[in-house]
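for the recovery benchmark. tokens below, seq after
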């Protein structure tokens, strides 16, 4: 190990008490997810004070943006898996392996190349992509141009997005989640401060409207990337990366691609499904489009504990399988499932009881076109509360399979939830049975409930409990 203060986390995760170190890894991840969502929440909060159409533009833009980002996101996940398993192998053998650093460096260099390509393609594809959405006439006139303006600026930030995402993933795989949390706090603070300035203008700064929200994201992400890379290369925290490690090594790239392609397909498949779902919802008037986007953002807030715990399970499972301790990995998963259920139950009850006050925090009743949007979004949130526990279980289950290197299994589960259930149920509810907005909301619930049940059945098979890297005895020595 490199002897950094964070290196103690690796041995803690593969030895001794299990729940406490897992939660210690998880709570910074929950906060990181919360801060991650704060980027979007800050945009929604301030744009909601601009107009409901601006919120609707985010509803259209986000699935398309996420589609491009998710393609590269799979490779950051692969880096985290390999770093976790190599770190666990090294901790179990008390060795001093450089394999985690080599993997981390190659993943970082490779992902940045992917980010540059995706950013350029995304920028060029804005108008063609939006043109494919069969929007309602009013939506096409009022919302689509705003979405295009936001997306053009956003894609310029793609290299910075990936630079920071990769930093977080590599540190998470290593078991250090506090350093990324500190960097995230700085980045979000910058975003929250400059968001209203760039949207509404202040002093010599002109009002950029919805484009201002995208520029705020670019600036704050750039700061996060610079600080994060300084942590990786200028401090002893995290895996030991040398500048030469950034040059992709063919053998490591092969592993990153083998694990990353299913993860990329999973994330992009889900993103594409959301594009299709958004296209279906766009056939409704603007108030419903805005409510759908606002509801999805609120639901993403609700799922933060589950997502953070799922990422912690990813790390714990990866390190323990790397250390050849499958029983300990199984116990970690059982504990995580119990914790996520206990957390999500009261959250579901709160959302079901008070949906309207929650929605009004992000879209004040007095803003233009707000009353209809609030009513629809409140209905969506109340219905969605039914799935909260199931979604928590689904997230932890997929985190387990990713940590084990079973990214193809995680891909299959996600495709079941969105493509075999949510998309066809939404289409049937809207165009076949004419259930209206209620059909859209319940289709979301059906997808995650089905995904959770299939995931639990797959977990019970126990076929995921072997490592995808060499065992501790075969770990190469430090070079």
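predicted aa per position
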């Amino acid at each position: 190990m490199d002897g950094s203060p964070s290196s103690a986390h690796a041995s803690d995760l593969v030895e001794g008490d299990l729940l406490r170190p897992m939660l210690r890894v998880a709570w910074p991840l929950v906060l990181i997810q919360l801060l991650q969502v704060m980027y979007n929440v800050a945009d929604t909060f301030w744009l909601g004070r601009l107009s409901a159409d601006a919120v609707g533009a985010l509803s259209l833009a986000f699935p398309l943006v996420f589609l491009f980002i998710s393609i590269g996101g799979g490779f950051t996940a692969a880096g985290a898996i390999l770093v976790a398993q190599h770190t666990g192998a090294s901790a179990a053998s008390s060795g001093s392996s450089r394999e985690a650093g080599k993997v981390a460096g190659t993943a970082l260099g490779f992902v940045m190349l992917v980010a540059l390509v995706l950013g350029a393609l995304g920028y060029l594809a804005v108008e063609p992509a939006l043109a494919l959405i069969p929007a309602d006439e009013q939506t096409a006139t009022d919302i689509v141009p705003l979405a295009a303006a936001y997306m053009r600026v956003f894609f310029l930030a793609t290299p910075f997005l990936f630079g920071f995402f990769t930093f977080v993933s590599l540190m998470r795989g290593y078991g250090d989640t506090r350093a990324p949390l500190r960097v995230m706090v700085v980045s979000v603070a910058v975003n929250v401060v400059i968001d209203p300035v760039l949207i509404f203008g202040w002093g010599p700064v002109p009002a950029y409207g919805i484009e201002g929200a995208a520029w705020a994201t670019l600036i704050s992400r750039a700061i996060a990337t610079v600080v994060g890379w300084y942590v990786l290369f200028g401090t002893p925290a995290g895996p030991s990366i040398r500048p030469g490690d950034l040059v992709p090594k063919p053998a490591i790239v092969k592993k990153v691609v083998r694990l990353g392609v299913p993860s990329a397909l999973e994330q992009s498949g889900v993103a594409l499904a959301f594009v299709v779902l958004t296209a279906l919802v766009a056939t409704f008037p603007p108030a419903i489009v805005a409510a759908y986007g606002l509801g999805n953002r609120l639901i993403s807030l609700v799922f933060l504990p589950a997502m953070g715990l799922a990422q912690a399970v990813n790390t714990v499972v990866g390190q323990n399988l790397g250390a050849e301790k499958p029983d300990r990995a199984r116990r970690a998963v059982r504990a995580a499932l119990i914790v996520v259920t206990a957390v999500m139950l009261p959250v579901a009850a709160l959302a079901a009881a008070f949906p309207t006050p929650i929605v009004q925090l992000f879209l004040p009743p007095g803003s233009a076109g707000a009353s209809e949007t609030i009513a629809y979004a409140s209905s969506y949130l109340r219905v969605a509360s039914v799935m909260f526990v199931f979604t928590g279980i689904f997230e932890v289950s997929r985190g387990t399979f990713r940590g084990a290197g079973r990214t193809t299994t995680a891909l299959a589960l996600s495709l079941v939830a969105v493509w075999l259930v949510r998309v066809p149920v939404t289409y049937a509810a809207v165009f076949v049975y004419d259930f209206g907005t209620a059909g859209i909301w319940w289709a979301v619930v059906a997808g995650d409930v089905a995904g959770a049940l299939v995931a639990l059945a797959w977990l019970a098979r126990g076929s995921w409990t072997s490592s995808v890297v060499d065992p501790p005895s075969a770990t190469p020595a430090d070079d």
